[in-house]
Specification:
- The chain has 331 residues and is α+β, with helices and mostly antiparallel strands.
- The chain folds into two domains: 5-100, 2-Layer Sandwich (Phosphorylase Kinase, domain 1); 113-327, Aminoglycoside phosphotransferase (APH), C-terminal lobe (Aminoglycoside 3'-phosphotransferase, Chain: A, domain 2).
- The protein is built from 13 helices and nine strands.
- The strands form three sheets. Strands 1-2-3-5-4 form a five-stranded antiparallel beta sheet, with helices on both faces. Strands 6-9 form a two-stranded antiparallel ribbon.
- α3 packs antiparallel against α7, α6 packs across α11 (275-298) and α11 (275-298) runs antiparallel to α12 (304-317).
- This is Phosphotransferase family protein.
- It comes from Azospirillum argentinense.
Amino acid sequence: MTGTAGLHGALTRLPAFAGLPQGALEPMPRRGVAHDHVRLLGKGLVARVPRWSQLGLDPIANLEQQATAFRRAAPSGHTPELAAVLPPGPELPMGALVVTEIVGRPPRLPGDMPAIARALAALHALPLPLDGERAPLPAPADPVAATLAQVERQAVWFERAGLAPDALARLGTELEAARAFRCAAPIPITLVGSDVHPGNFLIDDAGKAWFTDLEKAQYGHPAIDLAHASLYTSTMWEREVAAVLAPDEVAAFHEAWEAAVPPALAEAVRPWRQPLRRLTWLRTLSWMARWRVEGAALSPDMPDSLAAHMDAHAVDVLRPEIIGRVAAEWR
């Protein structure tokens, strides 16, 4: 963000922050594409300021959905707690949330993958609200079909991104396989984080993993979270975290998750785990294809180094050889 005056004005209208000096706001290094973060010095809090909604929501709906996600995830013990909501206004067009600051370091892979698995397990094991009580978080009746529909909407960007013909052919094959997939097993539904790439976690001094970005939280299929946390497209996303997991390291991650959830949930997810890796991977690749075309417009004023990393990652994951290497896991 270009300055903190608007945030300071919005904060100081709340009684809890009435005496907060302007100098207590410390912008944090920008790491993601959709939010700025500002530390409230001496408060143990961070302001989370949206730059845009990755879900296409208006500012009020975006803020309400994110606030609800933080409230509902907090009992897991692995996410920040919501402290305040700053509504959208002239000073702060997208509003902001104030959440507890998680003091920690980026994950080191593969060593911290079991801790990430346990954090996801705590999220997935939370009690499921009744159907009529899940809004405003998305709650598709069939999250597998909903994810495929998302991939179909985003797949138009493959053609627009100027990909190599071999890459397009490989992606077409994978899309056809995703469309043809059927599984007779019941679909387990839990609270899921959705955007659970390892860069969205912090590891505290005790080795506990904290999931910090709940913008895309919804009620969905936990196997999609397991895939997104461990696929190449995700483990290479964040510069400070980047690593490639070996098959045995992915298996150890799954084992840690199964050990931390109720046995019935582990059993229900098992038949979906491998098939949904392809679908989750296509969800990310189609988003990255869009980034190759519209990245600069989607997140303007991004620091040059972060933009360069994102651009390079979008090129890398859509190279024919990388597509083939990842797809070999299920072929």
